[in-house]
Design brief:
This protein is mainly alpha-helical. It has 8 helices and no strands.
Length: 201
């Protein structure tokens, strides 16, 4: 660990201790550190802006409630991501059960939200071709099973290492690597199939 990373970890640990002692400003600082990353992860799992906002807020509320029991055996952000991921996966399972009972989906006709609906400020800086590719990738990502999707999101979007992903998902390192590899392969297949479809349409 380099010095800046060590300093950052020490500063975070101090914020956590202060928040556990009842310092609301310290917890607000922790929220500010991670709210965008937590939201992005939730959004890429559920592909719904309102749901992602609700899940992000709920994750921080649950973290606040459980903070007195946080014993620092895991890193705070790993613990926080685990809460958010578990909430989102639970939300996804509930959505699937609802869709099994009723074919009405997010838009009432079975369609997923359009990728352009995502709250991405960087989209304004990308050209049409980049936006089209980004939309195709997110559409393909939305078709993956949850276990592959979350592994790919944490690795390729959040740039986490395998060990951290294993801690968040509570699975062995080999399982993490397998899910990421399988998820990437499925993404390539989906994108290739979509490209062929577009070229022949």
């Amino acid at each position: 660990m380099n010095r800046s990373a060590g300093d950052n970890a020490a500063a975070e640990a101090e914020l956590v201790r202060s928040a556990q002692a009842g310092d609301h400003d310290a917890f607000a600082a922790l929220v500010a550190r991670y709210q965008d990353r937590i939201f992005n992860t939730c959004f890429r799992m559920c592909h719904n802006h309102a749901d992602a906002l609700d899940l992000t807020q709920t994750a921080f509320l649950k973290a606040l409630e459980a903070l007195p029991r946080f014993d620092a055996r895991a890193r705070f952000y790993t613990w926080l991501f685990r809460i958010a991921v578990n909430l989102t996966l639970s939300h996804r399972r509930q959505q699937k059960r609802r869709h099994t009972a009723s074919l009405d989906a997010v838009h009432g006709d079975g369609r997923m939200p359009e990728p352009a609906a995502r709250p991405d400020a960087a989209a304004q800086r990308r050209g049409p071709e980049q936006e089209e590719l980004r939309g195709r990738v997110e559409h393909a990502l939305a078709q993956l099973d949850d276990e592959f999707r979350i592994a790919v999101v944490l690795k390729d979007v959040e740039d986490m290492d395998y060990a951290t992903i294993g801690e968040i998902l509570e699975v062995p390192l080999g399982t993490v690597k397998s899910r990421i590899y399988r998820g990437r392969m499925l993404l390539r297949q989906l994108l290739s199939a979509e490209k062929v479809h577009l070229e022949t349409a």
